[in-house]
Amino acid sequence: MSHSVLIIGSGFGGIGMAIRLKQAGLHDFVILEKADELGGTWRDNTYPGAACDVPSHLYSFSFERKTDWTRRFPPQGEILDYLRHCARKYGVLPHIRFGTEVTEARFDAGDGQSNAVWRVSTSEGDELTARVLISACGQLNRPALPAIEGRESFTGPSFHSARWDHGVDLQGRKVAVIGTGASAIQIVPEIAAEAGRLVVFQRSAPYVIQKPDRPYRRWERMLLAAVPGVYELSRAKIYALYESRAVGFVKYPRLMKIMEKAFRKGLEAQVPDPALRDSLVPDYPMGCKRILVSSDYYPALNRPNVHLVTDPIARITPTGVTTADGTDHEADVIVHATGFLSTDFLAPMKITGVGGRELNDVWRHGAAAHLGITVSGFPNLFLLYGPYTNLGHNSIIYMLESQYRYVMGCLGALRKADLDWIDVRPGVLDAFGREMQERLRSTVWETGCASWYMNAEGKVVNNWPGFTFAYRRATRRPDPRDFRARRAAPLATPGTRA
User: Fold this and answer.
1) For 151-206+290-336, CATH number?
2) What's the domain of life for this entry (predicted)?
3) 79-111 per-position pLDDT tens digit
């Protein structure tokens, strides 16, 4: 089956891109989704306490406002419902093929008499073709399980936080949570009151700041819906506040010292035990790793049934976790809150471009894409939430909307200039990669810690080293000089051009 555009993934990236395609009058597209439901990370992460750490008014599409969020920071279920609503309202659902995982995509340059296409193979054994291939897989979609000796030997329930087993009853049981990242700090407070004994294994202490969350009052929701401009003002205010944080992240990392002092003061107020408090002080500059937000994580650690363990894990046994000091920590259930394979991007899919080059091989020393969107040697392939587009300070939805516009500009160029394909020039991609690495060196992410922003070689490949409005300006429209192109075959099949 042939399409003009094929999108991989139906999270925020895929749904938003599909809406923009339909608004532009392009209806010949398909979304391939490996799961049985849309939603991406907000479908997968159903663990207790799952919620966003960006305010709801900003963590939503600018073109589809929602004035009746129940809280300032939206919970997982509400975000998923919002995405379902968007897909229904804009007629995206009929374009989604659920339960269809992409295993391979190969660029076929054509023979001069026919146009180039991407040949996409699926887990069902089908092959689809599309002139344009858009990856909306995101960066946080493949759970990372730690290589701990004996992990498979544990006899009780054991699962990753993104694959939460809701059939497991934690009431009164001994629970081990491995990890203290963004998922763990939401999980621990929720299950602390339920578990008989909860042991939290911390490899590296995170910075956790207060989360100014609260329910929206009924009159506030009515005001947002009824008075023109109030919602937009709220969104703009939140954006400006969060954008200002980029000054410390990417311009003057020394400013993070001010936030560090506030963090320590808050920690002292929330954790009265000096020994426990000392264990919760990070040994790296604030912002080097992801800053977490929670108002109930530290209070949960004060509970008598909750125990923080900072000794390294030596192995997992059939009955629990053994640390390097020889202590056996019995457990009935193990939760791996150990993050994601964030720097692998399109893996494990096999993406083959011009001349048989495989994307994973091209990226063996670190993923790179011009503006996080295009890769030289892979014509008509566009990435959403690709390398160098993650943030430490603002909403990724803002970045995605910038990318939609850029991709639509590229599709418009294909159509208007009657082009078969466009491919970013190698020199343009290389220059962008050098610029990113040079700018990243002066950011807080390069101040001496290991984080999920880095690949195995210690190279930061995830984050945008600047303001989001600067990224929007850079992606305002594609520059024709950045691309090489080939004109469409004269006998192209009608109706197949993007």
Assistant:
1) 3.50.50.60
2) Bacteria
3) 999 999 999 999 999 999 999 999 999 999 987
Comparing CA positions, the residue from 91, 115, 85 lying closest to residue 21 is: 91
Nearest by Cα to 335 from 45, 110, 8, 61: 45
SS3 content of the chain, % helix, strand, coil (to 5): 35, 20, 45
Helix (H) or strand (E) holding 270: helix 256-270
Mean pLDDT taken over the chain = 94
* Residue 99 CA, distance from chain mean position: 21
Which amino acid is residue 15, in one-letter code?
I
pLDDT tens for 167-184 read 999 999 999 999 999 999
Task: Give the 3-state secondary structure of residue 175.
Answer: strand
Please tell me which of 121-125, 130-134, 450-454 the model is most confident about, judged by mean pLDDT: 130-134
Residues of the chain with CATH 3.50.50.60: 2-142+341-487, 151-206+290-336
Query: Tokens representing 1?
Result: 């089956």
Q: Residue 110: enclosing H or E segment and its boundaries? A: none
Q: What would be the CATH architecture of the domain defined by 2-142+341-487?
A: 3-Layer(bba) Sandwich (3.50)
In degrees to the nearest 10, what's the CA dihedral of 300, 305, 310, 316?
A: -120
- Provide the 3-class DSSP secondary structure of residue 495: coil
Nearest to 313 by CA among 300, 305, 322, 304: 322
Residue 120 burial (C-beta neighbours within 10 Å; 0-12, 13-18, 19+) = buried
Number of C-beta neighbours around residue 290 at 10 A: 18
Percentage of the chain beyond pLDDT 70 is: 98
The CA radius of gyration of the chain, in Å to the nearest whole number, is: 24
